[in-house]
């Protein structure tokens, strides 16, 4: 289900179940969580094999859930994966080529950077058959695109084009080769990347964030001075 390779300073994580549009089973979610947790490169590039990014939860797995407790566990698994992406030390870049649906959108929302190809599409179709994405999407989507666009996208069940997704801020760029963006980011200083992710993800009070910002900046300056003094 999950394939990995390292390309210089980028760990490429591939959702590899193209015959099911990379839909995720409970085992697939566990594999993805492990892949993210094990990455020690400064950048992780997450993408899907074949013609889709990710169709979300495997509906066969959903239909096999026996009761409410099993459904809660499945939701919690997806939430743990999204949390692992969000809190990883690495900058996680989602490269969306083709369809991102339901949980696929939710995984992308947890990533630090989202880029799409011109043919990418986005949708939350669960509402059309009595479900919705429950891997943290109802929390992250309004934070990222605003409540109005989040509500319309979620309740309409319609698909968004790459251009529409960029307009509302669901993706930041539309490019032909999304993986190139991950290498562009990986070309920067790893320590600065890690600090920026930590600072931008901080949810403390404004005053505390500013104190931590100053401390982090001071630490980077100290390390830069040490390297300059060592001639490295």
TrEMBL record:
- What superkingdom does the record give? Archaea
The answer to whether the entry has keyword Lyase is yes
What's the EC number here? 4.2.1.17
Q: Fetch the InterPro entries from UniProt.
A: ClpP/crotonase-like_dom_sf (IPR029045), Enoyl-CoA_hyd/isom_CS (IPR018376), Enoyl-CoA_hydra/iso (IPR001753)
- Family according to the record: Belongs to the enoyl-CoA hydratase/isomerase family.
Q: Which UniProt keywords apply?
A: Lyase
The name of this protein is Enoyl-CoA hydratase/carnithine racemase
- An example molecular function term from Gene Ontology annotations: enoyl-CoA hydratase activity
Q: Does the keyword Lipid metabolism apply?
A: no
Protein source organism? Natranaeroarchaeum sulfidigenes
């Amino acid at each position: 289900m999950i394939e990995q390779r390292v390309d210089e300073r980028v760990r490429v994580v591939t959702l590899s179940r193209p015959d099911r549009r990379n839909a995720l089973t409970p085992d697939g979610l566990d594999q993805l969580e492990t892949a993210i947790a094990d990455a020690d490169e400064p950048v992780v590039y997450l993408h899907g094999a074949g013609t889709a990014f990710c169709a979300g939860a495997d509906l066969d797995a959903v239909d096999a859930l026996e009761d409410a407790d099993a459904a809660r566990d499945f939701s919690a698994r997806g939430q743990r994966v999204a949390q692992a992406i969000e809190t990883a030390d690495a900058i996680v870049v989602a490269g969306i080529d083709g369809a991102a649906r339901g949980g696929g959108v939710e995984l992308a929302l947890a990533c630090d950077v989202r880029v799409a190809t011109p043919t990418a599409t986005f949708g939350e179709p669960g509402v059309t058959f009595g479900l919705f994405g429950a891997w943290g999407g109802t929390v992250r989507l309004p934070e990222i695109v605003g409540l109005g666009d989040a509500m319309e996208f979620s309740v309409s069940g319609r698909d968004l084009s790459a251009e529409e997704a960029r307009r509302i801020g669901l993706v930041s760029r539309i490019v032909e080769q999304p993986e190139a963006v991950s290498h562009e980011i990986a070309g920067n200083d790893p320590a600065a990347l890690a600090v920026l992710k930590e600072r931008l993800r901080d949810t403390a009070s404004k005053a505390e964030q500013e104190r931590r910002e100053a401390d982090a900046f001071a630490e980077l300056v100290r390390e830069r001075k040490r390297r300059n003094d060592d001639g490295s």
